[in-house]
Specification:
Low-confidence stretches: 31-58
Number of domains: 6
Number of strands: 15
CATH superfamily of the largest domain: Beta Polymerase, domain 2
Helix content: 55-70%
CATH topology of the largest domain: Beta Polymerase, domain 2
Strand content: 5-15%
Length: about 1000
């Protein structure tokens, strides 16, 4: 669907005339021209780029303007007056930009603008263009951009603009007043803290930006020409704040950058504009109120000295996060909401923010739970509503179903809010009274009529009210508990009677009409032993556990899977009653355990195989990182016997299973991203490899002479949950007096390393190992000498082998030898130039045709994110070919795909649009590969239409059900769009036709 067709759906009666008007303007080249200061460098650079990212839609300014005016009538005069900006947006495309990209573009926009007026004009034009791009992208159909992504990008844009405005203000203040210094003579730190929606990266299309300003100390002054002046630090930073604020929100003929609101500062509108840290601490300790705790919950440093900003928030943390668990906070939050509602001017039911079941109430549901429990659990301290909801779910404070419904409600309300504000051009949350405008808004959201939109809104608001009432209304809780107890008694009666048909008939009461019949069998298994969670003995000792457990199972992502894994776990426990008691005293632990089992077959199966892992789930864990992963391996090995190989292998396996579980839990909870998980898992594998190599060498009386080289994902520090380890071994020619003996002994060492890493063991599985990337592949020796390795690379290495060496990295053994091996590998990989592009493409097509498990036609579609068309290997081959082509530049020599792509882009070896497509595609596909593994537990990451679990995977990938389709449909559509563009970018890099 092109943009004009979409405009015709939104405004069928007006779209034709709108398009004709904009098409005429496009032919005339109408509108003003941007000044030199206002024309961002990247737009000039990309004017003649042949490659375009078709995910953005046609690069037609008339079509883009038509869609924008059809959906957002208030933009019409701006589109006419700023036609050059519309054309620039159409030319550059609608693809999402990171904060780093926006920051660079903001700096480009103002570069060369000396006068304050030029800086402000350039910044306003830049902000206008980016807001147009973001507003247009939110309108695109599946797989379009949802409102949370839009809000995040608007927040990053506001942060980038604030940083640029602050940079100019500080330069001006330094020139006028001198440099601000503390008592020690160092520059005094200053930070801008974003609050509210800006702090949570949830900014609206029409939001103000709420800011707090802090400087480090009042002890010091300003220094000019080597001498202190009369200007105090407070005066200096107050003037900086005034100038920065004016740059952002003073209206000019170019509009504004952003409206700024400073009223959340200590003492509100009557308080000073800026505060020293000590003064702020005194204020909040003495006078801080509940609403200020709520406000600071979302505080985030956005400009200036960010490290100082983190110190500020750490200092204020005791005010926000109390160690005492106080459920009355929810009542206080409800009172704040009612107070705001009383002060509203219009009818509350028409306000999507403050009205009943509105955005504020949805936010307060999440923030109430954060404030109640966040003092005890730092993992809950997130500034973003959806991220906090994910963490609450992982922590067992909300169920999977509650989290899913709360997320859907919040997004529904936010989508409508964005449309209202952009369509009207007003900072309003009121549903428009104009029927025609409301119909446009409904159609832009995917609804066929206004009535359909309002019905959906009514259901959404009722759900939000019900969730908030569950925190505050004791009467509602008592009624729900009474109904749940009656239901569970009926289940117990059916189980005790041994009547499987009655158990099956009971299922719809708690699990709905579509409950799996297998679920009845698993519930029965959970009740058969008397000391099982639903057993007779447990019922007598812990009568509330059954209600809590069944409710948690019913609201898990996959109730049948959760019940099956839970029954399997308790069947393996030597003392089930101990764990039943632990669950009974901590309802959060019940929800955490069932939530994990319902969400991740991979982690659930690991817990069942090794029940000791459940302790880390129930009784606390740390956030994993590379250093902690390596330390876990060392700690386990130190406790093992160096003379007992079986004990040593057990230590390696225990470390592997524990760290893998911790990484998976943090991944599910949103505490680390895919890159963070890969770094921790890579560090775990590397530390395991280092210990195994040390052990194997010591068995042969050696301590050096052998280097283990990592390749593939381990070489690139991109290990996933089920990744193989690609390795080869090189020994030093002079390691032993007898060369023949050396080769034999080091082969034995290498074989021993492989067995230590991969052999079966009761403590858990090892690693799958692959040594086929060694010189001569399977036909070559397992271990080669350094001299033989060099000769092979110089005389016999095939182009694909040189390409593979781009990932070579020393991982274990003799570090000095490893350095020599990597030097030889780098020379082979980078200094012989790129292989012929036709050869690279031939190899890529063989992998796709012979190894990928795709089915694109005939029956249900099936996709392979790694080897399939436009998959991960497309990105890797494109990047690796560019690295080999430009290998003389040492800046591009890295084993990590993402880092290599950034270096190639920085050095100008790849077009910015192509780099963005490859980078975004790579990150999406890697996330999909990892999510599929952690959720489904199999070794395959194939994506199949209508497959079981696809909806859960889609939701975990950020897709949602909505009026335009299901989450599963959105995921498949997004996958096809991404891989189509990745394939086009790959072909563009190689200069090949499709």
């Amino acid at each position: 669907m092109d943009l004009v067709e979409l405009a015709r759906i939104i405004a069928p009666d007006e779209a034709g005339a709108i398009f004709a008007r904009h098409e005429a303007r496009a032919r005339e080249g109408g509108g003003d021209r941007p000044s030199a200061a206002g024309r961002a460098g990247p737009d000039r650079e990309n004017e003649n780029v042949e490659y375009t990212d078709r995910r953005d839609g046609p690069r037609d300014p008339a079509a883009l303007a038509t869609l924008l005016e059809a959906a957002y009538p208030a933009l019409a005069p701006w589109l006419a007056a700023r036609w050059a900006d519309v054309a620039a947006v159409a030319r550059a495309g609608l693809a999402e930009r990171s904060y780093e990209a926006l920051r660079a573009l903001a700096a480009d926009a103002t570069r060369g603008a000396a006068a304050l007026g030029d800086v402000r004009a350039a910044l306003r034009r830049f902000a206008f263009r980016e807001k147009l791009r973001i507003a247009a992208r939110e309108l695109l159909p599946q797989p379009g951009t949802d409102v949370d992504v839009t809000a995040r990008e608007l927040s990053d844009l506001a942060s980038a603009c604030t940083e640029e405005a602050l940079r100019e203000a500080l330069a001006w203040a330094d020139a006028r007043f001198g440099e601000p210094v503390d008592a020690a003579g160092d520059r005094c730190a200053f930070v801008v803290v974003g609050m509210g929606k800006l702090g949570g990266r949830e900014l609206n299309a029409g939001s103000d930006i709420d800011l707090l300003l802090f400087y480090a100390t009042d002890d010091g002054g300003t220094r000019k020409g080597g001498a202190l002046t009369d200007t105090t630090l407070h005066e200096y930073f107050a003037r900086v704040t005034q100038r920065m604020t004016a740059t952002l929100d003073e209206a000019t003929e170019d509009g504004i950058v952003w409206r700024v609101d400073l009223r959340l500062r200590p003492e509100g509108s009557t308080g000073p504009l800026v505060n020293a840290l000590a003064a702020a601490e005194r204020y909040y300790e003495s006078w801080g109120r509940t609403w200020e705790r709520v406000a600071l919950l979302r505080a985030r440093p956005i400009a200036g000295d960010l490290a100082f900003g983190r110190r500020v928030l750490e200092a204020l943390s005791p005010f926000v996060w109390r160690r005492t668990v106080d459920p009355r906070i929810a009542e206080e939050m409800s009172s704040l909401l009612l107070r705001a509602r009383v002060e509203m001017a219009g009818p509350p039911e028409r306000d999507v923010k403050l009205g009943p079941g509105g955005i504020r109430e949805a936010e307060f549901f999440v923030q109430s739970l954060q404030l109640i429990w966040g003092g005890r659990d730092p993992a809950l301290r997130s500034t973003n509503t959806l991220d906090a909801l994910l963490r609450l779910r992982s922590g067992g404070l909300v169920t999977e179903l509650e989290a899913r419904e709360a997320e859907a409600s919040y997004l529904t309300l936010r989508r409508l809010e964005h449309r209202i504000q952009t369509a009207t051009g007003l900072q309003t949350h009121a549903i428009p009274a104009d029927p025609a405008l409301l119909l446009r808004i409904a159609r832009s959201l995917g609804f066929a009529s206004t009535a359909a939109l309002m019905d959906d809104l009514l259901r959404t608001r009722a759900g939000v009210e019900e969730r908030m009432a569950s925190l505050t209304s004791s009467e509602a809780r008592v009624a729900a508990e009474r109904a749940s107890r009656a239901s569970i008694e009926r289940l117990y009666a059916a189980i005790d009677a041994g009547d499987d048909a009655r158990v099956l008939a009971w299922l719809p009461e708690q699990f709905g009409a579509w409950a799996s019949p297998d679920l009845a069998r698993h519930l029965t298994a959970l009740a058969r032993p008397p000391d099982a969670p639903l057993g007779s003995l447990t019922r007598d000792r812990h009568p509330e556990l059954g209600v809590t457990l069944v409710e948690a199972l019913a609201e898990a992502a996959d109730p049948e899977q959760a019940a099956r894994l839970l029954a399997a776990l308790f069947a393996r426990l030597a003392m089930p009653s101990v764990y039943a008691r632990a669950l009974a005293v901590d309802p959060r632990a019940v929800r955490r355990l069932t939530g994990l089992f319902g969400a991740s077959a991979f982690l659930g199966q690991a817990a069942v195989a090794h029940p000791s892992l459940v302790d880390s789930l129930l009784f606390g864990r740390g956030t994993p990182d590379p250093e902690g992963a390596a330390r876990a391996v060392r700690d386990e090995v130190q406790q093992a016997s160096r003379d007992d190989a079986d004990d040593f292998v057990g230590a390696l396996r225990r470390a592997k299973r524990r760290v893998t579980m911790e990484v998976g839990l943090a991944d599910l909870a949103g505490e680390i991203d895919v890159r963070g998980a890969a770094l921790a898992l890579s560090a775990l594998a590397e530390a395991t490899l280092a210990e195994a190599t040390r052990f194997a060498l010591a068995e042969r009386g050696l301590d050096a002479g052998l280097a283990v080289i990592a390749m593939g994902k381990l070489g690139g520090r991109e290990i996933g949950y089920g990744s193989d380890l690609d390795l080869f071994f090189v020994y030093a020619d002079d390691a032993l007096p007898d060369p023949d003996d050396a080769q034999e002994r080091f082969i034995r060492v290498a074989q021993r390393v492989l067995r230590l890493l991969g052999s079966p063991h009761g403590a858990g599985p090892g690693y799958e190992l692959d040594t086929r990337l060694r010189p001569s592949g399977n036909a070559g020796l397992l271990v080669v000498s350094l001299d033989a390795f060099r000769r092979y690379q110089e005389t016999r290495a095939e182009p694909w082998e040189r390409q593979a060496l781009l990932k070579a990295r020393f991982a274990a053994g003799d570090a000095a030898l490893g350095e020599q091996v990597i030097a030889a590998a780098s020379a082979a990989a980078y200094e012989a130039g790129a292989a012929p592009k036709e050869l690279i493409h031939h190899l890529r097509m063989r992998m796709e045709n012979e190894l990928a498990g795709e089915r694109l036609t005939g029956g249900r579609a099936r996709f392979d994110p790694k080897l399939g068309r436009g998959g991960i290997v497309d990105v890797e081959f494109a990047v690796q070919w560019l690295q080999m082509r430009h290998g003389a530049d040492r800046a591009v020599r890295t084993t990590e795909t993402d880092a290599a792509l950034s270096a190639l882009e920085r050095r100008g070896y790849v077009d910015r649009a192509i780099a963005a497509t490859l980078r975004d595609g790579y990150r999406f596909l890697r996330q999909l590969e990892q999510r599929a593994r952690v959720h489904h537990g199999g070794s395959s990451a194939l994506l199949e239409e209508a497959a079981p679990g696809l909806a859960l995977l889609a939701r975990r990938m950020g897709m949602r059900d909505g009026p335009r389709g299901t989450a599963s449909e959105a995921l498949l559509a997004h996958y096809v769009a991404v891989t189509t563009e990745v394939r086009r970018a790959y072909l563009a890099v190689l200069g090949l036709s499709a």
